[in-house]
Amino acid sequence: MSTEDRPPAPRSLAEALRARGDVPLGALLRSRPDLITPVPTDLTQLATRAGTRASVVRALERLDRFTLQTAEALAVAADPATYDELLGLTAGDGADPAVVAALPHALEILREQALVWGGDDRLRLVRTARELLAPAPQHPSPTGLGPTVQEATAGMSPGRIQEIVTAAGLSSTHDSVSAVTALTGLFTDRTRMAALLADAPADSLEVLERLVWGPPYGQVTPDPAARLRWLLDRGLLLPTAPGTVVLPREVALHLRRGLAHRTPEPVPPVVEVTAAHRPQVVDSTAAGQAYTALATVEELLKDWDEGGPAVLRAGGLSVRDLKRTAVALDVPEPVAAFWVELAYAAGLIAADGEADERYAATPAYDEWLEAPAAERWSRLATAWLAATRTAGLVGGRDAKDRTLSALGPGLDRSAAPEVRHRVLALLAGLPEGAAPDAGSVLARLRWERPPRGARPEDDPRARLAQWALSEAELLGVTGRGALSAHGRALLGAAAAVRHPEAEGSGPGDSGPGDKLPVHHHRPVPVVPLSPAEQAVASAAAARLLAPQLPEPLDHVLLQADLTAVAPGPLRRPLADMLGVLADVESKGGATVYRFTPGSVRRALDAGQAASDLHAFLAAHSRTPVPQPLAYLIDDVARRHGHLRVGAASAYVRCDDDAVLNEILADKRAAGLGLRRLAPTVLAAQADPAGLLEGLRSMGFAPAAESAEGDVLITRALAHRTPPRTAPEPVPDGPPVPDDVLLAAALRAIRAGDLASTTPRKPGTAPAVNGELPRTGSAETLATMQAAVLTGEALWIGYVNAEGTASQRVIAPIRVEGGFVTAYDHTADEVRTYPLHRITGVAELADDSG
C-alpha cells in the first residue's frame, strides 16, 4: 500500500476505536465489561471511560506478567514510541529470541484492551496507564528505573547544567534545553557512554552497580566522597532533593544493556508434574473421597437435624460450636469449617429465622437426600466451584480486627470461583493421572495475574489457589493430587476450549499436530459456564462418578459382642433405623454399630416394639441374630414402660410398690422432689422430661405417658428452616456480556457514534460532548416537513419516556398528528417519534453517507 493510500494515523483513542470492526470492538467489551455498564452513548464516551483510573487499574490487574512488563516498558519509553524502541526495552541489546517472538502478541493484547493505541511507528500508552506505571518517587516503577535526564534537571540552574555538560566532555551551549538534549544524546549513545565510563574510577562504578536495577535513589552528604563527586560532576548521578541523588533513566538503561526489566518473562512457567498415577487409581481414589464427602455432609446435617448451633448476634458459628462440630465429624476445625460452608453454599443449611435463631437443615436437604449419590455429589461440587464464600478465611481477622467465623459475614472473595476454575483447568492440561507440583501451579498463577504491591506470600490469589487444591482433594474432584475423570467433566468443554495453552494449541492451529510455540500462549480469562452449560457438565460428571461409588447394601453382619458391621454404605431406610437402634462405634471402610441398653430404649421410645426389632434384625442380617442381642432387646423391652411418668408437675406410677420404695430410698432421687401419693403413685417437683432423665440415670427404664394413660412415642421431629435459597456468589465486577447483550451494545454505540459524527450543513453547530441539537418546535416541524418532500436525512436529539437522551440520524417519511414516522439510520428500522420529545433538529451535509 502506498503512503497516499494508507489511512491516516489516529489522533486519539476514540479515533482508533472508530477504526475497529465489530469483532475487535466486541473483544474489547468482553475483556473489559465495565466499559458497557452502562452502555456508552458513542465511541468518544467509550474511549473516555476506557481511560478512567478505575477502569485502567482493573484492566492492568488482569494482564499477564509479560504483557504487564510490556506496558511498563512503554511507560518509560518516549511518548509516542516506535516498535523498535519498545523491542529494545523488552529484549535488550542481545535481542532475546523469546521476547522477540512474544512481544507482538503482548502488544496485540494491549491494543485489544485499549491500553495502547496507534501504529507501530507511533505507539501510545493511554495517559492514565502511563501515570500509573511511569516511575515516580511516590510510586516507584517495577522496572526500577528513575526519571529521565530532562525530568531530573527540570529545577536545576542553567549554570550547573553547563558545568555538567563541560565535565562530561561536551561543548557548552547557549541554553539549558540544548544542553540537556546534548547530555541525553551522550547517555543514549552506546559508544560514547562506554568511552565515558571507561575512565570512571572503580569505586564509582560500584556505586552505579548498586543503583542500576533499583531503587535508583541514594543519599549523599553535603560534602560527597570523591567517587560520588566524579559521578555528580558528569551528570551520571543527579540531585533531586537536598541529600538525595538519582540515577538517570538513560544511564541505567545503558548499564542494563537496554533492558527495562532485569528478568523479562515472556514464557509462562511450566506446571511441573511430581507424580504420575494410573487414571483408574486416580478415579477410584477420588470416588472414595467423594463418598466420604457425602457421608460427612450427611453426618453434619443429621447432627443438626433437631436444630443446630445458635446464630451469633453478628452472624455465624461461635468458636465453641465449630469445635464441637469438628469433634462430632472427627476432623480438624478448618476442615469442619469447609464442610459447614459447603453445605451452606449448596443451600442445605440456613438460619431458621426464629427469635432464638439457630442453624438447621433446609427443606432442600430432604430432596437432596432422596437423590442418587452421584447427583448429590455433583450438586455439592457445583456449589463449591461457584461459591465466593471462602472457608479458608475462618479464624482469621477482618479489616476491623474481628474474628471471621464460619457462616458469618466477611468470607466472600469474588475471585475465588475464577481461581478454582483456573487451578482445575491447569490440572486438566496435564496428562491424565498426573499430579502437579503445587509450587509450580502457584508460580503459573502469579505469572498470569502478577500480584501488585504485595509479596508473593501475601498474594490473596495464591492463598485461594492453595485452598482450591486442598478442597478439591477433600471433595473428590481430584485423587492423589491429579484431576479425576469426573472432575474434568465438571469443568465442561470450557477447560479445553477456553484455555488453549493447556493443550499446547491455539485457535490458529491447523490441526492437532501443529503446536504453537510456547511464547504464543497467553492466559485466557476464565469465563464461567452458563447455568445451562454447568447443568450439562454436572450431569456428565455424575454419570462418570456413579459407577465408581459403592452400591448401597441392604444387610449388616451381626456379631456376638453386641455389634453390627456394615461392610459398605447402607440403603437409607436401613441406615436410618440402625442409627436409632445402635450407636456408631467406628467408621471407615466398614462401619461398626454397637447395641446398648440406651440405644435399644431409644428405639422403643420411637414407637418400635420388641417384636419389630427382632423382625428387623432378622430381615437385614446375613448372620443369625446372636442370643446376647436378643436377650438385650427382650430385657430392655420387659422393663420399658414398667414405670409411667406424667404431668402432675410430674408423677411416677407403677403397679409394683416395691419398685417405688426402691426409688424413694435411692439418694440419687433426692433432687427430684419425690413424695408418695398412693401405694403405686409418686409425685415429683421436677418436670416430666427431667424426671425421665433422672430415673434413667438411676438405671430404670421409665416411659412417658399421655393424659389418657397411653405410652407416648417420643420420636424426634426433624427441625427444618422455612424454604431458603443458597447464597448468591458475590460477582467480581460486572459480568462478561453474552452474545445478545454484546450485539445490542455494539449496535447502540455505533448508532450513537453515527449520530454524533455525521457531518452537518455549514452553519449548524457541531455536537459537543454528546450535546443534543436544540431548535424551537416550529422550526423542528418545518424542517421535518421539508425533509419529507426532499427525502433528506436529519440529525435529531431525542428524549425517551424514561428520560434517556440520545442522538439519531433519521430520514422522515410522514409527519402527522404530532408524530414523525422516519427511517432511523442508527437503529436500521422504521420508527415513529412524538414531536414533543425531539429536542432539536439539524440538516446533514449533502455528502454524508
From TrEMBL:
GO terms for molecular function: helicase activity. The keyword Transcription does not apply. Residues 779-841 form the WYL domain. The keyword Kinase does not apply. Residues 498-520, 754-773 are annotated as: Disordered. InterPro entries: WYL_dom (IPR026881), XPB/Ssl2_N (IPR032830). Keywords: ATP-binding, Helicase, Hydrolase, Nucleotide-binding. Residues 556-678 form the Helicase XPB/Ssl2 N-terminal domain. It holds the Pfam family Helicase_C_3. This is Helicase C-terminal domain-containing protein. It comes from Streptomyces violaceus. The lineage of its organism: Bacteria, Bacillati, Actinomycetota, Actinomycetes, Kitasatosporales.
